[in-house]
Amino acid sequence: MANGPHNQDKTTTSPTRGGSPVTYDQLSDASHDLGHASGNDLVSSVSDSQLLATESSVAHPDPHNTTRYHCVASGTVPNIAPDGPPQNLYSTFDDMDFNSNLDWILKDVSGEDMLSPADLFGFQECPEGQLNLPVSAASAAMLSARHSDAGDNDHEDVNGHDASSAVALGGLLTPQPQEMGDPGDPWPLDTPRPTQSHMALPALGNDNQDFRTFARFFSVTPVCDRTWHALRKCLMLPFEHNSIQTLNLDHFPSKEKLDHCIDLYFAYFHPTLDLVHQPTFDPGRDLVLTLAVVSVGACYSDLQGAKAFSIVLSELVRRLLIFVAEQDRRFVRTGPYLTAQLLQGTHGYCTGSERLFELSESCRSTLLHQARCMGLFRFEAPAPIQMDQTLEEMWREWIEAEKLRRLGWVLYMYDASVAYLLNNRPFLSIGDINLNLPASAEEWAAETAQAWSALRPTRTYHTSLPLRPLIRTLFDGTPNAVERITDEGHRFLVVLTLVRMLWSLKENRSSPLNDLIMPAPFDDGRADLLQALDSMSVSIVAASRSHTKTEIDRLVHRMRLIHVAHIYGAGDLMNWLYPYLRHGLEAENAAVRMKRWGSEDSQRTREVAYHSAQILGLIRNFPNSMPLESYLIFHAGVVLSCVAPLLPSSTLSSQSIPLQIDQLDPGDNSISRRHLHWVKNGGNQCISIFGVRSLCTPTSRQDILDQTAALLKRQKVWGIARNLEKVVLSLRGRDRDTAL
C-alpha cells in the first residue's frame, strides 16, 4: 500500500527461468478475468461482450512475459472544477493506486498517533491500550543499507583527513558514514549507521492465572516442552547473527497460554477460513504455522496485553518467514509456508496496525505468485485408487490432497475479498482457478478415519465439479440450478465469483474505451449476474430456526456478500466514494459526481439504500466477529449516509407507518415484499432504519453515521474497527461543522 496521497506504481518482480526480472502489472480490463477461454462461456450476455474489453487500456507487451503488459503512463489529469465537463469525472476516481491507498483510514484525522509506527522495537503498552514506541517511522526508515567498518573514527576518511573538508571529483562531496544524519545531506543513500535496537515480546496476561483449569473448546494436541522450546528457538533464528537487532523473549507465553490461543483460533477463526485440519493438527509439526495460529488466536483472548502481543508476534513471524525463505528457497513453495503467510495477511488487514496492513497488501502478490508456481490452481487429475491401502492410509492421503485444494480456494477467496472490501483489483483472475471444489465441511471436520468413511460410504475420493461448470448451470436453463448446489461452501464460492465478476465489469465500464467509443460497444450483463445472485438469497431469520450457529454464520456471510454485490453493481458508486470520504482535493468533484449519480436513476439509489441497510441489519442481529466484518459495517454505513440525502423527502405525517428497510424478513416475504415494492416503485413513504426515524431529514446522515459507529464499537476482536470508527465519527463531525 502506498504511504502518501500520490499515486505510485505497485509492481512486483519475479525471476524468470533465465534469471532476468519480470514485472507483473495488473491489467485494468475485465477481460483479464472473464475473457479467458476457460471462463468466457459462463454467462453469454457477459462473456460475448468482454471480447472487446482487451483494448480498455493503452498497453504494450512485456518482452519478458507475453502474458502480461506494461501500462503506458498517462498524462496527469487536471483537477476538475465542480462545473466542469461531467464526462471527465470518471478519469478522476478510477485509478486503483489511488483507491488502494488507504492511509486515510489508518491515520487518525485528529493528528493523534493511534497506530504503531513502522519500527516495533521497544514495545511497551500504554494504559489506554495503545502502543508506546519511541522509534518513529521516519527514523526507522533511516536504517543504513551500508555499514562502516572504520571503527570510531567515522568523521575521518580512509586517509585520515576530515571528511567535512574533503573535496573530490570536481567539487562533489565525498559521502562518509556518520553517527547522526543531516536532513540536508546530498547523499540520501548514505544513511547514518544505526544503533543497536532491542525488541521485546510483550507479556500475554499475568502469571497469577492458572490456565490448567481453563475450559477448552476442543481436544487439540497440546504444546509439549519440546515444542515450547522449539517455538522460542524459531523466533530467535532471525536475531542470532544480527548485530543490529536483539530480541527479548522473557515474556514468551507458557504452554498453557499457547494452548489457550490455539483453542480460540479453532473456536472462532477456523469456521471462517477452515484451512487447517483441526483433527490432525500438531503444534510441533509445522512451527511457523503454529506461531501464526497463536498470533491470530490471541486476538480473541481477553487476557491483558493480548492485542499488543498479537501484533508483535505477527511481526516476529514475518521476520521468521523471511529468514527461513532466504535459508532455503524451497520452503516458500510448501503448504505450511503459504498457510502461515495467508494467516499473516488476514491478520494484518484486520488488526488495525498500519505497518501490518501495508505488509499484507504488498505481500499478497508474492503469496499468490508462489501458489501459482506450486500449481495450486491447476486442473486436478483423478487420483489413482490403491486397493491395498488401509482406511487410515486412505484418510491421511485424502487429508494431504484436500489441504492443498482448500489452500488454493482460500487464497482465491482472500485475493477476491480485496475487491469488495477495499475496492482494489485482485491479482488472480477467474480463469486462473482450475481445481475441483473443496469437500464438505463435515468431511473436513471428521475426527477419525471411521467418521470420515461414514460420511462417504459409496466414494473413495472426492469427485466434485470444478467451479465454472457449476456457475454455468445458473445461466444455461438448468432446472433447479440453485437447489443442485447442496454444499454451503460451494454456494459461497459461486456467490463470491459472481461478485468478483461484477467488480471487474464495474472497472471495465469506467475504462478509457468508453471515452474513445460512444456509445460503449458492449452490454456488461450486470443484470444477469445480479439476478443469479438474488436467486441464492435465503431468509436468515427463518433459517435460524433449523440451523446451527456455525451454519447460520456461513449463511449470513453469503447474504452479506449478495447485498454487497448490489452496491458494486450500482454504476460507479464505489469509484467516487473513497475520494469523497478522504475529504481531499478530489472531494468537491466527488460530491458533484455523487449528486449526478443520484439523479441518473432514482430506483438505483433506492436499491443501494435498501441493500446497505440490510447489511447493517444482518450484522446487528447476527454478528459473528469474523475478521472482515468491520469493513462491511463501514462500507454499508457510509454508503447509506451518502445516498440517504439523495432520497426524496416524504410529505407524510409523523403518524404514518414507516418502512424500516433494515428489518429482516421472517421468511414469509411479508417484509421483503414491501421493501422490494418500494425499491422498484418508490412512493411517498417515511423510510427509516434502526435508530433513525427518517432517512429523508437533514440530520439523517449524522444519525446513520452514529449508528454505524455504534456497530463498529461492538467489534471487540479486530483493531481495524477502532480505525474505521474514528473515520466514521470524523465524517459526522465534518457534516456537523458544515451545517453550522
TrEMBL record:
Question: Per the record, a Pfam family?
Answer: Fungal_trans
What species is given as this protein's source? Fonsecaea erecta
| Keywords tagged on the record | Metal-binding, Nucleus, Transcription, Transcription regulation, Zinc
- InterPro entries (alphabetical): XnlR_reg_dom
What this protein is called in its record is Xylanolytic transcriptional activator regulatory domain-containing protein
Question: What region holds the Xylanolytic transcriptional activator regulatory domain?
Answer: 262-456
- Origin superkingdom: Eukaryota
The GO biological-process annotations, alphabetized, read as: DNA-templated transcription
Q: Where is the composition biased (Polar residues)?
A: 10-29
Stretch list, region Disordered: 1-48
Q: What are the GO MF terms of this UniProt record?
A: DNA binding; zinc ion binding
Presence of keyword Protein biosynthesis: no
Asked if the record carries the keyword Nucleotide-binding, the reply is no
